[in-house]
Specification:
heterodimer, A: 211 residues, 2 strands, 68% helix, 2% strand, B: 424 residues, mainly alpha, 3 domains, four-stranded mixed sheet, 6 strands, 5% strand
Chain lengths: 211, 424
């Protein structure tokens, strides 16, 4: 166990795993603050934005930072499976966020409550969407600049994502109610596309090609 | 730097055209009184909420480029101040282009004439401040953190802070989207608050970047930050949520129609505008029907008018919108409705507004748009379909009509709704 732990200690250091862990725990805790459910419409033609949508941006940004660190050229010829490590890092941090957030929401709602609360579900959907944008953008511009994509999407939703008196536009699905099935479908499609692009082109190839 | 090199490497240059198009698209959706340059300029500054993010982000990008290449840390013959100014100039130009573009678009779109230069100057200084904050973030933070945070930080500052219950905070940003009704001008205190705050940010950011080197610089920068925040907050403290002050009333242009004095601001009194002809027609028609209307109609702010003055708040230049604005002025919300324990539904106010609008010859379409719910729910007007009620009141003798109007008006003034809306 110790040996296995030591094997990835350099990886943990380079990929800022501590920071990513901190962002997972911090985001899950912040979601428990009642203010995270506050929704504000900041633009006359923008969708209402919940504070939780900003909180959910923390983890993709931290992942973007961690995965952009390192030496792509050396990693591409390393004996260890860095790509698999990265996949495990992304998956475990997302599942960590989901699990901690769900537990926190369950505690907030009371253990006997049937559901975990809209704020948590909206944040979860937003996190998956941001991750999808991060992975899609990585395919084109690499990890370092890819973390702009989720922020850009959130900004566009807040400024232009308003459809009519009651709902956000379809493309601004993170602003739609949690019960909207299309919003979840778009989220899964985007995340699936990002994952497929990541599998199709390993993370270092963009940066290595650019060196 | 040569222009060709700048075009090749600067994200600020690449983003200039898309952001300009976005900002123009945005201001065409904003609402402000037509034909008023101050309001149009204020409406244009609202685009800063999302466009300043691009200014800060591109400056952060440039700083990250200098840092990662080791150029920032290397010894240079040029001072760091000079390098910083050169590096952030494309971002500042990006901001200047979109700010001037949105102001020009709002002026043309709102037929507003000359823009309010003071607001443009404060907006430009805010752009300079955020470009330096972005540059600082690019130097100090990893690129993958600096870029998204600089894209969103101005958005939070310009758009989220005004949504907070602390009203004076919003005046510190240098964006004045809530200004101004036609009877008001931008508050000088709000302008000073925004100006001082942004100059403070510029000085402190330059120090933190390392571009300002002076004796006791850390103490001076800290002192400037504290003093700047305190002075700008002091100016913003008394401004309130809307950064406006009443205009000088001597500029009002007054005339008399059917013994009613009608006063409009010069911006609404041009030979090609519909405001005065429409108002003349409305006043003449209401006076001819013997309806009780105030003896003075004026566009000055309601706070400075007397009891016998109807305050006009004209936002759009089409005759129907003018009639609706008058109807709102003739049947205002009573002061008692603002009490926290008030249970006043306000349906009698809407009934009155609809009636005034109909009496002025307003269109069915506008009535449907503004009071569609009242038309659909006869229960809101005592079980009588609203159009039947208006028709009955309109055909009643003048004395009955005035009695009906006075009864509803006096009940509404006491936050009460009548059980019986019929003409008695």
């Amino acid at each position: 166990m110790t040996t296995a732990f030591n094997n990835v200690s350099l990886y943990r250091k380079v990929r800022r795993v501590n920071l990513i862990t901190l962002s997972v725990v911090g985001s899950a805790l912040l979601l428990q603050v009642p203010a995270s459910a506050i929704s504000i419409r900041v633009s006359p033609i923008g969708a209402p934005l919940m504070i939780a949508l900003f909180i959910a941006l923390g983890l993709p940004s931290a992942l973007g930072f961690g995965l952009s660190s390192g030496l792509p050229a050396q990693e591409s010829v390393a004996a260890r499976h860095i790509r698999r490590y990265d996949a495990v890092l992304v998956a475990s941090s997302v599942f960590g966020f989901l699990a901690l957030g769900a537990v926190g929401a369950q505690v907030s709602a009371g253990f006997n409550a049937a559901d975990v609360g809209d704020t948590y579900l909206i944040a979860t959907r937003a996190l998956m969407t941001y991750l999808g944008w991060l992975l899609v953008a990585r395919f084109f511009v690499g990890w370092r600049a890819a973390s702009v994509a989720p922020a850009l999407y959130l900004l566009a939703v807040g400024v232009f994502g308003f459809a009519d008196e009651t709902v956000a536009a379809g493309w601004a699905w993170i602003g739609l109610p949690v019960t909207n099935e299309w919003a979840w479908s778009y989220t899964w499609i985007l995340l699936g596309l990002g994952t497929a692009l990541w599998a199709f082109r390993p993370n270092w190839s963009v940066e290595v090609a650019a060196v | 730097m040569r222009l060709r090199t700048l075009l090749r490497i600067s994200p600020a240059v690449w983003l200039t055209l898309p952001t300009l198009i976005l900002s123009i698209l945005y201001v065409t959706k904003a609402t402000y009184p037509t034909n008023y340059g101050v309001a149009a300029t204020a409406g244009a500054t609202s685009s800063m909420a999302f466009l300043v993010g691009f200014v800060a982000m591109t400056a952060a990008w440039e700083a990250a480029r200098l840092r990662r290449g080791g150029m920032w840390a290397a010894p240079h013959t040029r001072s760091r101040l000079e390098i910083t100014i050169t590096a952030v100039t494309p971002s500042i130009l990006l901001g200047a282009v979109f700010l001037l573009g949105t102001v020009a678009a709002a002026s043309l779109y709102g037929q507003a004439g000359l823009p309010e230069i003071r607001m443009v100057v404060v907006g430009f200084i805010a752009i300079c401040a955020w470009s330096l904050v972005g540059f600082l973030a690019g130097l100090r933070l990893p690129m993958s953190v600096a870029l998204p945070s600089m894209l969103l930080a101005p958005f939070l500052w310009f758009a989220f802070v005004p949504a907070l219950p602390v009203e004076w905070l919003r005046q510190l940003s240098g964006m004045y989207r809530d200004c101004c009704r036609i009877g008001a001008d931008i508050s000088p205190a709000a302008l000073l608050a925004g100006l001082i705050m942004n100059v403070t940010i510029i000085v402190v950011a330059l120090y933190a970047i390392g571009a300002l080197r002076m004796r006791w610089s850390r103490i001076v920068a800290t002192a400037m930050l504290v003093v700047g925040v305190m002075i700008s907050s002091a100016f913003a403290w008394n401004v309130g949520p809307i950064p406006e002050v009443a205009r000088d009333r001597s500029a009002l242009k007054c005339g008399t129609v059917s013994e009613v004095e009608l006063c409009l601001w010069p911006e609404h009194d041009g030979s090609l505008q519909v405001f005065r002809p429409t108002l003349n027609k409305v006043i003449a028609a209401l006076a001819r029907d013997g309806l009780p209307i105030p003896g003075r109609w004026s566009e000055e702010l309601a706070g400075s008018s007397s009891a016998d003055t109807l305050g006009l708040d004209l936002w759009k230049s089409d005759p129907d919108s003018i009639r609706w604005s008058i109807a709102q002025g003739l049947a205002p919300w009573p002061a008692c409705s603002e009490a926290s324990d008030s249970a006043f539904s306000g349906s009698s106010i809407d009934v009155l507004r609809g009636w005034w609008f109909t009496a002025m010859g307003g269109s069915e379409a506008m009535l449907q748009e503004n009071l569609g719910w009242l038309i659909a729910e006869p229960s809101a007007s005592g079980g009588i379909p609203i159009k039947d009620l208006y028709s009955t009141v309109g055909s009643a003798p003048v004395t009955s009509r005035i009695a009906w109007l006075e009864r509803l008006t006096s009940l509404a003034a006491k936050c009460q709704s009548p059980d019986d809306y019929s003409v008695q």
